[in-house]
C-alpha cells in the first residue's frame, strides 16, 4: 500500500495527488479538496504511540498539535499545518503554552498516553513507557541505562566510557509528573503560517518538565531565550535547572549514540562529566 491508498482507505476519500516530503512522510490532496499529511511507520506500535501522543497533547491551553484524522497498522493520517516563519511573539506564546501543557500532568513518571503502548518509540529507536513512582529510578532505568546497554552491546561505547555515564547521580527537584512532548528538539517545533509554534512528531509520556526544556537546548531553537522567559512567567523553574540540563540531555544523546554513534559519543561523555 502506498501513501495515497492509505489516505483513501483511512479517510474514505480518494487521493488525487501525493507529494513526498522526506523520509516516510507524504502530503496528500484528497478529492474533496482537503489536504492531509500521511506518515508511515514500520512498527504498528509506533503508529499507535504517535497517534495517542498527539491526542494526549491536544490540550486547549497548550501548544497546538495537528489533529489525527485516522490511523491503522502502518499509517497515520493528520491535518496539514502550513509552514510559516518564527517570530519573537510566537516564541513567547509557545513558552507560555508549553508551561500550561506540562502543568496538565500525567498519571506517573514513564506513563504512556491513555491507550498508548508500553513499547513505543522515539525517532527510529524503541522507547519503553512504564509507569513508575520515582522519577530518578525511572529515568535511570528506562531513559539512561536502557540506551546505555544498547550502545555498549552495539559497540558504540566501550565499557570504560559506559562507566562515565553510570557514575552520574540522577537527581532533580521533587515535582509531580509533567505531560511531556518527549522528543522536543527544534525540528519538532513547527513554526506555522498562523503565527504560532505547533508541536509535531511527539513521543509523549509522563516525566520531569526540565527534560523537554533540556532537549530544546540540545540542538538549539529559534528565540529559545524568549521561550524560556515566557515559560518561567507561567511556572518558574526550580533553582539550578540550567545546571541539570546535561542530565536530562543524556537521554536523547544516548538515543543518538545507539542509533548513530560517531560524534554523539563525545557529546554524551561531555554531558556526563559536566554533572557534579
Automatic annotation (TrEMBL):
Pfam families cross-referenced by the UniProt entry: Fructosamin_kin
InterPro entries: Fructo-/Ketosamine-3-kinase, Kinase-like_dom_sf
Keyword Transferase applies: yes
Any GO MF annotation of the entry: kinase activity
Alphabetic keyword roster: Kinase, Transferase
Top-rank lineage group of the source organism: Bacteria
Coiled-coil ranges per UniProt: none
Family listed: Belongs to the fructosamine kinase family.
Name the record gives this protein: Fructosamine-3-kinase
Native species: Saccharothrix variisporea
Amino acid at each position: 500500500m502506498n501513501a495515497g491508498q492509505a489516505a483513501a482507505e483511512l479517510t474514505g476519500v480518494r487521493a488525487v495527488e501525493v507529494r513526498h516530503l522526506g523520509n516516510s512522510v507524504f502530503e496528500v490532496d484528497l478529492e474533496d479538496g482537503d489536504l492531509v499529511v500521511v506518515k508511515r511507520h514500520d512498527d504498528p506500535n509506533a503508529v499507535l504511540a504517535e497517534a495517542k501522543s498527539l491526542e494526549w497533547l491536544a490540550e486547549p491551553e497548550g501548544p497546538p498539535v495537528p489533529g489525527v484524522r485516522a490511523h491503522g497498522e502502518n499509517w497515520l493520517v493528520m491535518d496539514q499545518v502550513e509552514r510559516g516563519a518564527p517570530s519573537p511573539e510566537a516564541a513567547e506564546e509557545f513558552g507560555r503554552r508549553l508551561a500550561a501543557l506540562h502543568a496538565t500532568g500525567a498519571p506517573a513518571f514513564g506513563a504512556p498516553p491513555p491507550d498508548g503502548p508500553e513499547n513505543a518509540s522515539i525517532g527510529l529507536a524503541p522507547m519503553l513507557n512504564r509507569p513508575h513512582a520515582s522519577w530518578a529510578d525511572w529515568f535511570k532505568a528506562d531513559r539512561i541505562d536502557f540506551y546505555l546497554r544498547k550502545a555498549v552491546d552495539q559497540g558504540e561505547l566501550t565499557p570504560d566510557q559506559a562507566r562515565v555515564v553510570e557514575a552520574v547521580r540522577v537527581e532533580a527537584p521533587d515535582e509531580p509528573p509533567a505531560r511531556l512532548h518527549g522528543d522536543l528538539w527544534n525540528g519538532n517545533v513547527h513554526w506555522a503560517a498562523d503565527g504560532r509554534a505547533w508541536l509535531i512528531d511527539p513521543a509523549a509520556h509522563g516525566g520531569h518538565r526540565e527534560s523537554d526544556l533540556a532537549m530544546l537546548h540540545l540542538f538549539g531553537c529559534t528565540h529559545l531565550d524568549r521561550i524560556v522567559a515566557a515559560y518561567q512567567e507561567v511556572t518558574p523553574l526550580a533553582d539550578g535547572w540550567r545546571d541539570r540540563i546535561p542530565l536530562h540531555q543524556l537521554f536523547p544523546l544516548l538515543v543518538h549514540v545507539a542509533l548513530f554513534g560517531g560524534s554523539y559519543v563525545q557529546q554524551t561523555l561531555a554531558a556526563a562529566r559536566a554533572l557534579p
